[in-house]
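Marked as duplicate of an earlier ticket. Keeping the data here for the record.
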Amino acid sequence: MRKFVAFIPVLLVFTACAELSQVVKDMNVNQPLTQNEVISGLKQALVIGADSAAKELSGINGYYGDERVKISLPPQAQTITQNLSKIPGGDKMVEDVLLRINRAAEDAARDAAPIFANAISKMTIQDGFKILNGNTDAATQYLKMQTYDELYNLYQPKIKASVGKKLVGNISTSDAWETLTGQWNRIAHSFVGQMADLESVEVELDRYLTEQALNGLFVKLAMEEAEIRTNTEARVTDLLRRVFGRANTQ
């Protein structure tokens, strides 16, 4: 009984410390944010989000296994896929093409994080406050503006190499696309085609697929950003909890 009575003050001390710690945390969250805190917190959030998005997409089936970002052929390629599906093994060939394209994007995603990190390091104070008080994808849009061209140059050669590989009959995806669009455009440009108001197809396949791959990358990044902004459990550091906790109360 004496041991239990002696333990009570200790318990009260620990309880008081825990309560005091929570009060201090609450006070810290409610204190005005300094400019350095805003910039540091946003940079930390962006690095975490960008690393997570790039890591997830660069894994096996990062693109191919996620319908939200899986890369498909252009709508104009429907004729190709429909005709191939009519021959033995055609469906598999189409799926092999899609798999190869998405694998190329997964390979490119491995090198996306350093490009994001470089852009993040150049963020200004004005950029930081604009992002903090912006929409749930404000940081994603900022990174898209800062990195798109560099990321395009990273992805495009890998996508182009993928669609240039020879398949069944020594024909590549790019070859089949050029044949299809070439034949269609000759009809569209003919007198009969013009009378029928047929529009030519001017889609560059590797460009289209690269743009789709980058769209998927920024979709993932936006999801990571929204998670940090709205889910307190996703704020894995004290700085993130302070910066985004304060932003949510304003």
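See parent ticket for discussion. The first helix runs from residue 2 to 30.
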